[in-house]
């Protein structure tokens, strides 16, 4: 036993443990992330990064419902598993951050319709 119950615990200043929060004043600390650049204006509310006529991967609505690559008809509706949803969400975020719209669109397809929809073998139930 390091100390008995009758002895008080040492304070952090006495042990040298802990974090010195006064080391860098908050005003002098470097920014942790970029919020918005004035050189990249935000799109108006309700608008996407692309117009409906020029979608990445030429994803088009289909008669059966949902969307498919190239607007292919007669495909089964894809079902996303938990892993598909996680991978799709990751692809969407990375695609948006890197402005890789093809990756973003594949992520949307995979998140909604699974791996088969992202590969063009099924339709995704979204849009």
UniProtKB/TrEMBL annotation:
The lineage of its organism: Eukaryota, Fungi, Dikarya, Basidiomycota, Agaricomycotina. Residues 114-127 have a biased composition (Low complexity). It comes from Exidia glandulosa HHB12029. This is CsbD-like domain-containing protein. Residues 99-113 have a biased composition (Basic and acidic residues). It comes from the Eukaryota. Residues 1-58, 97-127 are annotated as: Disordered.
């Amino acid at each position: 036993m390091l100390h008995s119950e009758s002895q008080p615990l040492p304070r952090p200043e006495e042990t040298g443990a802990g974090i010195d929060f006064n080391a860098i004043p908050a005003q002098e600390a470097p920014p942790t992330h970029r919020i918005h650049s004035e050189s990249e204006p935000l799109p108006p509310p309700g608008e996407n990064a692309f117009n409906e006529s020029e979608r990445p991967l030429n994803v088009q609505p289909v008669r059966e419902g949902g969307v498919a690559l190239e607007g292919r008809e007669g495909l089964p509706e894809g079902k996303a598993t938990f892993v598909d949803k996680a991978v799709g969400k990751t692809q969407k975020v990375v695609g948006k951050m890197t402005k890789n719209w093809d990756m973003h669109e594949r992520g949307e397809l995979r998140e909604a319709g699974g791996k088969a929809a992202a590969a063009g073998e099924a339709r995704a139930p979204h849009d």
